Amino acid sequence: MALAEVKPQLRVGSYLAGGTPAIAIPMKYILVTGGVISGIGKGIIASSIGTILKSCGLRVTAIKIDPYINIDAGTFSPYEHGEVFVLNDGGEVDLDLGNYERFLDINLYKDNNITTGKIYQHVINKERRGDFMGNTVQVVPHITDAIQEWVMNQAKVPVEASKEQPQVCVIELGGTIGDIEGMAFVEAFRQFQFKAKRENFCNIHVSLVPQPSSTGEQKTKPTQNSVRALRGLGLSPDLIICRSSMPVEMAVKEKISMFCHVNPEQVICIQDVYSTYQVPVLLEEQGVVKYFQERLHLPTGDSASNLLYKWKNMAERYEKLQKTCSIALVGKYTKLLDCYASVFKALEHSALAINHKLNLMYIDSIDLEPITESEDPVKFHEAWQKLCKAELLFAHNLFICFVYVLFKIGICLGMQLAVIEFARNCLNMEDAHSTEFEPNTLVPLVIDMPEYIPGNLGGTMRLGMRRTVFRTENSLLRKIYGDVPFIEERHRHRYEVNPSMINRFEHSDLRFVGQDVDGERMEILELANHPYFVGVQFHPEFSSRPLKPSPPYLGLLLAATGNLNAFVQQGCKLSASDRYSDSSDDSLSEQRIADLEIN
Q1: DSSP summary character for residue 77
Q2: 3-state class of 162 per DSSP?
Q3: What 8-state DSSP symbol labels residue 578?
C-alpha cells in the first residue's frame, strides 16, 4: 500500500484516538552507532528514526554523544566539525542537534549534547567534593555510571511545547566503533542495555557498503568487520543500516545477514538520495515501524501517519521543482559545506516553500578583495563572476560596496560590516571600523560587549534565545514576522554596534528597526527605499524548520523571485490554501497544497 494511502494509526500521547487515556510505557532507548568511516550519516539516520516514531504519535527526544575532550563545540574552528549550532538555552553544540531539531521540530538543551569533557568534569567535581568517600575514581564504574545517569536524566526532559515527558530517546554515538575516544561510552551502553532491559533498548548500527568503480561489486567486508568489533565490545546490532551509493542488492543483504547474525529484514539500505527529506520515507518503506513496534513493544499501528505523509509529499515536490533561485553565500569558511549547514537548510526551507530549487554558490570573502601581484587573479574573477550571476546575496562576513547588491541579508558579523560599510560610504566616516579587527581604531563603530571578559573564549559570548523589540511599525521584517511587537531568536556574538554612535544614523537611510528589550543593543537594520536589504544580529537559521521557514530567509527568497510585494499585501501568511505554485510567471496562486502546513 502506498504511504499516502495509509490512514492515520493509533497515536500514543496524552490521549489515544477517541479520547481514551494513553498507555503509559517505560522510556525506550535507541542507540545509533557507526562503523567504517565517520560522517556516514548517523545524524540524518537518527533524526529520521525520530521523525518516524513521532509520526506514530510518540514523544521523541534525542541525545548526541561526542567523544572529544572539549567541554562543548563553542571553541571549535568550523573546519573541525562544521558549524557550531546554538540552542535556546545558549548551548553551543554539535551540528547534528540542528538536524534533530529540524526533523523533529523540538527544542533541545545543552545537556542533550554529551562530551567526554563534560563527563570527566562532572566526575572530577564530585571527587573534589568528596562524594566518592575516598574511593579510587576509575573509568569503570564511575565514568560509565555517570554516562548512564546523564542519559537517563536527560531523556526525561520535555522538548516539546506540551512539556510532557518524552517516551523515546534516540542516542547517537559520534565517531566510529573502535575509536579509543569512544570506548568508555560503548562500555557504558553495554552495561546500560541490561539496566534498561531488552524490551526498552535497541542498537542500530550504520555502516558503509562501498562499491569500487574498478569492479562495480558491493563489498560487505567493511560492515562485517565493523559489526564484529561492535559485538566484541558487548553490543549486538538489532538493525544494520547500510549506506551505499546505489541500492543494496538482495544477495548482499543476505550475506550481511549471515555474517552479522541478523535476519535479512533487519538489514536496511539507505542509498544516496536526492535530498535528506527522502530518508524517513525510505526507512518507513522498509518496515522499521513494524520492527520497532515488535522489538520495543510500542503500542502503535504498523504504519506511520500524518507527519510522514507531509515528508513524503515534501520530498516528491523537491524532486519535481523546475525553477531555480541562485544565491551567493559570501563567508569566511566556504571550503567545507557543513560550516554553514543551518544557513543552507534555512535557505532551502524557504526556497521549497515558494516552489524553487536552491542553487547556493559559496564565495570566500577574501577572494572578493582587490588583488595584488602575489595573489591569484583567477580566484578573484571567478568569485565576482559568481556574485554577478546570483539573484541575491547572503553575507555572513563581507565588506562590499552597496552598488553591487540587489537583495541582501547580513547575519551577525554580516550586519556589523554592513553598518561599517554604510558609515564609510554614505556618512563620510572613512575610519569606521570594528575593534574585533582594529582594536585601536579611532572610530569604533562595532565594539566588544562590556560583559565580555577577554582571554576566556568558552561560553563567554551573548548566547541563546533573546528578545528583540520592534521600535517601529514601519518595518518590513516586522510584517514578515507576522506584524508582532517582538520576536525571540538565538544569538551568538561578542561584538555589537556601538550604541553611543547610533545617533549618527538618525537621519540616514539605514534604520535600526529592532533593538533589545533595554533599547541598548541594535538587533535589526533595514535600508530604506530598498527592495530587501536587511541585517540581523541574531541567527534566525537556527530556528528554521522544513515546514516552518525562517521569516528573514523567506523574505529574501520572496524578494528574489518577485513575490515579496504580493506576499506583504496579502498579510504575510503562507497557508495551506494560499501557496506558491510552480507556475511559469513566478506569481502567487490560490492552489491548495494541503499536505504542507507552514502556519
Answers
A1: -
A2: coil
A3: B
* Pairing outcome for strands 462-470 and 486-493: antiparallel
**Which segments within 58-157 are labelled E, that is strand?**
60-66, 85-86, 92-93, 113-115
Name the residue with cell 528578545.
Answer: 467
Q: Is residue 15 pLDDT above 70, yes or no?
A: no
Give the pTM: 0.86
In a domain, 590, yes or no: no
Distance (Å, rounded) from C-alpha 118 to C-alpha 14? 34
- Looking only at the bridges linking them, the beta strands covering 28-34 and 201-208 are parallel
Q: What is the mean pLDDT of residues 254-260?
A: 93
Give the HSE-up count for residue 28: Cα atoms under 13 Å, Cβ half-sphere: 23
Please report, for the domain that includes residue 199, its CATH number. 3.40.50.300
Q: Are 61 and 168 in contact (CB under 8 A)?
A: yes
Residue 592 pLDDT: 32
Range of the domain at 510: 322-569
Distance in angstroms (rounded) separating the CA atoms of residues 563 and 559:
6
Does 352 map to a domain? yes
The answer to whether residues 119 and 244 belong to one domain is yes
Q: What single-letter amino acid sits at 354?
A: I
- State phi, psi for 114 to the nearest 5 degrees: -100, 135
Classify residue 366 by its DSSP letter: G
Q: Which letter does DSSP use for residue 174 in this model?
A: -
The end-to-end CA distance of the chain, in Å, is 30
- Cell, residue 76: 571549535
Name the band, by pLDDT with cuts 50, 70 and 90, for residue 598.
Answer: very low
For strand 267-271 and strand 357-364, is the pairing parallel, antiparallel, or unpaired? unpaired
Residues facing 410 on adjacent strands: 395, 535
Edge to edge, what strands does the sheet with 510-516 contain?
357-364, 324-331, 392-395, 408-411, 533-536, 522-527, 510-516, 462-470, 486-493
Q: Does residue 172 lie in a domain region?
A: yes
Q: Which residues contact 267 (CB under 8 A, 6 or more apart)?
A: 239, 240, 242, 248, 253, 256, 257, 260
Catalytic sites, residue numbers:
412, 539, 541
**Are 385 and 403 contacting, i.e. CB atoms less than 8 angstroms apart?**
no
Q: Examine the domain organization and report whether 145 and 98 are in the same domain.
A: yes
Q: What is the 3-state secondary structure (H, E, C) of 354-378?
A: CCCEEEEEEEEHHHHCCCCCCCCHH
